[in-house]
Write a structure and sequence with these properties.
Chain B: Its main location: membrane. The complex is a heterodimer of chains A (237) and B (292). By secondary structure, chain A is an alpha/beta fold. Chain A has two domains: 3-79 and 155-235, P-loop containing nucleotide triphosphate hydrolases (Rossmann fold), CATH 3.40.50.300; 91-154, no CATH class. Chain A contains ten helices and ten strands. Chain A has a six-stranded mixed sheet with strand order 6-7-8-3-9-10, sandwiched between helices. Chain A has a four-stranded antiparallel sheet with strand order 2-1-4-5, covered by helices on one side. Chain B has 292 residues and is mainly alpha-helical. Chain B has a single domain (2-126, 133-278), classed as Orthogonal Bundle (ABC transporter involved in vitamin B12 uptake, BtuC), CATH 1.10.3470. The model of chain B has no long low-confidence stretch (mean pLDDT 90). The chains are: A alpha/beta (237), B mainly alpha (292). The A-B interface holds A 51, 53, 72-73, 76-77, 81-82, 84, 86, 88-93, 97, 100-102, 104-105, 108, 149, 153 and B 161, 164-165, 167-168, 171-172, 174-182, 286, 291.
Chain lengths: 237, 292
């Protein structure tokens, strides 16, 4: 399987503070890669670095193309959709407007409305809330909206930042079921960042463990999941 | 009662102008989160451009769109050249830039066109709308034009992709970037549109207040009052606030004898202070909560 995303020696910093110290990892075409690690390990920063919303160095290849010098808007146009941490919805705009924004880089046309209908069939709750301001949606609904908005791009790669963030276990489970379904249907590749390691390891094919900005372990998700030592020392469950 | 209705209608007409200024203020506030107090001077300069074109014999209805187009380009240029480079600078840098813009436009207008007050003819004609009408032809025309422009703007923000992108960029710039919206371009467009709206307000009010380099000072103050009243985060609120300020100004001037014509301007300041004390987010504004 070839890699859709290849990252080599990725470094990133906020001002003087270095957060990533040379990460190497890959996302396979059509696969799911999980980045695991504690709070502050640099997971979110890694996603930001890929999208160019934080200053970064190193090599990032998407579908063979170097993207580490591109501005965010151009990276999005290549088909990388990020579902930001804390969902990042447009709070004062309606649910439907949020979805339209997800397709902003695509030419205006009828297939956008068709895709919105498709999102509504995946997330019927969003259809009920279509003309409601996104900020008034519940946490779970906002997470659904963030995922649906990313799907509106018809992405080749989805970057998911803590999809379980602040959600009840039942809702988290539902979200992950939907993500699995989306992956089956569209074959989109995913890079997922999670604190909930057990959940992420069941969903992912490959996993990388990050600790203070460096990768300390990598391998197939199911092997890492079953490794008692890893579980005890890094994953804490 | 008649007097009351007359004053309300007259208030509506000037309120339309305040609404335009308030909207211009809010559009820039949405883009850069600072109040541009050079807004009035930019509008005044645009009005002079219009006057110059008229003096050269251009027909009024050609001058209108032309001046708005020039102002749009001017606003965009100001954003690109002076505002963009200090995007992340502290508040004081912005304040200094606005003072500079204020001084530059004010003195440039005086230098080019002189400080003497110039009358500007009304495109709608002089006198009452009809014998015994509560408002003059010019005020009626002013109201119609502002209403049309405000409705067009509303439709633009509500129904077009660019309008939606501009709203997204102001609500959540980071997420907007992540869906591919060119946030900095949207900010530039915001400046351009705000300048064009300001130009419209200036051109419409010039026959009433006469043309001189300080003509927009009080208008902008009323615009600020309208923007604060309606909520700096809400364009619709700003427009509403502008109209309310226009009406309140007129009624207070008529019914509170102490105020009369001279103290009218202090109403704007009074409103600003009162709103900030009672409801800081304004009528339709959202309170901003910052996560730290």
């Amino acid at each position: 399987m070839s890699a859709i995303l290849e990252v080599r020696g990725l470094e990133a910093s906020y001002g003087d503070r270095t957060v990533l110290r040379g990460l190497d990892f890959e996302v396979a075409e059509g696969g799911v890669t999980a980045l695991l690690g504690a709070n502050g390990a640099g997971k979110t920063t890694t996603l930001r670095a890929i999208c160019g919303t934080v200053r970064r160095r190193g090599e990032i290849r998407f579908a063979g193309k170097r993207i580490e010098r591109m501005p965010t808007e151009s990276i999005v146009r290549l088909g990388i959709a990020q579902v930001p941490e804390g969902r990042g919805t447009f709070a004062t705009l309606t649910t439907e407007e949020n979805l339209h924004l997800g397709a902003m880089t695509r030419p205006n046309g009828r297939d956008i409305s068709l895709d919105i209908e498709r999102c509504y069939s995946i997330f019927p709750r969003l259809k009920e809330r279509r003309s409601q301001q996104a900020g008034t949606l519940s946490g779970g609904e906002q997470q659904m909206l963030a995922i649906a908005r990313a799907l509106m791009l018809r992405p080749k790669l989805m970057l998911l930042d803590e999809p379980s963030f602040g959600l009840a276990p039942m809702i988290t489970k539902h979200i992950f079921e939907i993500l699995a379904e989306v992956k089956r249907e569209s074959g989109v590749s995913m890079l997922i960042v999670e604190q909930n390691a057990s959940l992420a390891l069941r969903f992912a094919d490959q996993a990388y463990l990050i600790e203070t900005g460096s990768i300390v372990m990598s391998g197939e998700a199911k092997i890492i999941r079953e490794d008692e030592g890893v579980r005890a020392s890094y994953l804490g469950y | 009662m008649d007097l009351f209705i007359h004053q309300v209608i007259a208030g509506f007409a000037t309120g339309g102008i305040y609404a335009c200024m308030a909207l211009a203020v809010v559009m820039i506030y949405q883009a850069i989160h600072h109040l541009n107090f050079a807004q009035g001077e930019m509008a005044m300069f645009s009005t002079y451009l219009g006057w110059q074109l008229l003096a050269w014999g251009a027909p009024y209805w050609a001058v209108f769109p032309l001046v708005m187009a020039i102002s749009f380009a001017g606003g965009l240029a100001i954003e690109r050249i002076v505002v963009r480079p200090i995007e992340n600078a502290p508040v004081l840098s912005h304040v200094v830039i606005f003072i500079a813009l204020f001084a530059i436009f004010n003195s440039a207008a005086g230098f080019i066109w002189g400080f003497t007050i110039k009358p500007v003819p009304s495109p709608f004609g002089e006198g009452a709308l009809y014998p015994g009408a509560p408002i003059g032809k010019h005020q009626a025309g002013m109201l119609v034009v502002t209403m049309i422009v405000l409705s067009l703007l509303w439709a633009f923000f509500r129904f077009t992709r660019v309008g939606l992108s501009m709203r997204a960029a102001s609500v959540n710039p980071e997420s907007a970037r992540l869906v591919g919206v060119r946030v900095s371009l949207m900010n530039g467009l915001g400046w351009g549109m705000a300048s064009a709206i300001g130009a419209l307000a200036g051109l419409l009010i010039a026959p009433v207040v006469f043309l001189e380099p300080n003509m927009m000072l009080s208008i902008l103050l009323y615009g600020f009052a309208g923007a604060v009243l309606g909520g700096l985060s809400s364009p619709l609120g700003a427009v509403l606030g502008g109209f309310i300020v226009g009406i309140v100004e007129n009624l207070a001037g008529t019914y509170i004898p102490v105020i009369g014509g001279e103290l009218k301007l202090s109403i704007a300041l009074f409103l600003i202070v009162a709103v900030l004390l009672v409801k800081p987010a304004g009528l339709l504004g959202r309170r901003t909560v910052q996560r730290v």
